[in-house]
Amino acid sequence: MEVILAEHAGFCFGVQRAVDTVYQQIENSEKKGRPIYTFGPIIHNEEVVSDLQRRGVRVLDSLAAAGRVSEEERGTVIIRSHGVEKIVCENLKELGFEVVDATCPFVKRIHNIVEKESAAGKSIVIVGNEGHPEVEGIRGWSESATYIVGAVEEARNLVSRPGEELCIVSQTTFNYKKFQDVVEIFAERGYNGSVVNTVCNATEVRQAEARELAARVDVMIVIGGNHSSNTRKLYEICRQECEMTYYIQTLDDLHLRLPESVRLVGITAGASTPNNIIEEVQNYVRINF
Length: 289
Ligand code: SF4
What we know:
Blueprint: E1 2-5, H1 13-32, E2 36-39, H2 46-54, E3 58-60, H3 63-68, E4 76-79, H4 86-94, E5 98-101, H5 105-119, E6 123-127, H6 133-139, E7 146-149, H7 152-157, E8 165-170, H8 176-188, E9 192-195, H9 202-216, E10 219-223, H10 229-241, E11 245-248, E12 264-269, H11 275-288
Parallel strand pairs: 1-12, 2-3, 2-4, 4-5, 6-7, 6-8, 8-9, 10-11, 10-12
Helix pairs in contact: 5-6, 9-10
Iron/sulfur cluster (SF4) binds next to helix 1 and helix 5.
């Protein structure tokens, strides 16, 4: 029996970089002897967060929580891949924390565009989901009026000031087709300004690859946290192509009894599934079937 692991299973580049940053900081802290925090959980994966907790990394959920940390305990705060508002970095520094910015460079690029264009007088349109931490972070780099548009109807209903110049960007994980649809509405309305495509295709690539792999294997295994919406989406895509698709969190959930006829097993994993879990599952299937 052959096992094929999807090339883009698991962490994307930005998340891998953020998680690596935390582990590097743990090594450095042994020299510095100062506590380490992440601003929000570094990733939505219980295994990783508990491992970091065991190594002494604490999670700060808000600026208010950071303010409650005693002065001697104000060590290093790592900003996760989603990024944060400019004021959050500034306030953390004012409180005496050292800020290590692990914002994904693709998100940082949006912060830079928004900061520059808003300073030049343009209003900012962020095509994305209101309330998503990445969108809130992007909004926090704008010095001018900022609109968040999550759907075509919202673009149609947006009332901008006469002569207002716009700079349109997108949340990195927003669907590219929907982004184009929104931009088209602005074009129809004769907006004045610029559009920067800031959609990251990491999610799309992972999904397309999972679909293609599921269509050619006998059994498909999708690994990811219970609450991970992108893993659930991967599972649904694979299930459409392959009836024997299994959704597991870790190797412990895998209770496979495979029919003799199974020749090919495919494995993929959600964006917050660490490599060691993927490898464990892969090795287990290779050795035991
Ligand atoms: Fe990952 Fe792309 Fe988001 Fe960066 S922008 S964290 S690479 S999904």
